[in-house]
Design goal:
six-stranded parallel sheet; 6 strands; SGNH_hydro; Rossmann fold; alpha/beta; 43% helix; 262 residues
Length: 262
Amino acid sequence: MSVNYFWDERLMNETESRAPTILAIGDSWFWYPFYGGSLINYLGQAVKSKDHFIFAIGMNGAEAYDYIDGKYARQVREALKGYRNKLKAVFISGGGNDFAGFADLRPLLKSDCSQEDDPQACFAAKPGLDEFFAAVDDHYRRLVGLIHASTRSDCVVVMHTYDYAIPNGRGVFGDSWLKPALDDAKVKPHLQQECVKLLIDRFAEVLESICESDPEHFRLVDSRGTLAPEHWANELHPTPQGFQKLVKDQWRPVLQEAGLAA
């Protein structure tokens, strides 16, 4: 088996004569289209020694809502139904896009943060971070509940926290996701990274709580603080070396503990 990860189901079926053993439901961290690939390229290498192969569904820009009620909900359900008896694990990458991008991040910030010196104070009371992350928590819990109900009892769900993205305005094809909203809200430059860190930490708390609810089936890859600035290709996505480092340093130990990697 030369390649053990697929994003195209038709190509997978033409190439392989068996069902995938790992389903990867994800956003651009699983679908990043540029040279060097995404997490999936390196996760495929990590699980290859255990004779696993991965089928990825979702797409760049996917939000947690999309997997359970939105544009990829049908695809998720069909994949779980179709491959349920063979799946040993489901990987999830989602939630980052829920607060990335001007339309997502800007409403979370106050109209004018120019007088604030605390990152927490830069966020608006309405909708409020508690309400926002309660919605993310609900989408995730419904998704992992669906996975748990649709797969074998030994299937493991692996989630991850991303890392502390750098709001430097670097984007793809002229678009960036974090700095425009922070600048529009007049967040002081030295607080912008702290605002992003706060969001990632709150997201990690959501995932930690979910994993604590069923440690037998749920695993968390806590990749916060793994990447140095040179490991970021742009505001949201690591370089190939960054993705590789995340898998080597953070994903592989979790996968080994779960029996999915050597």
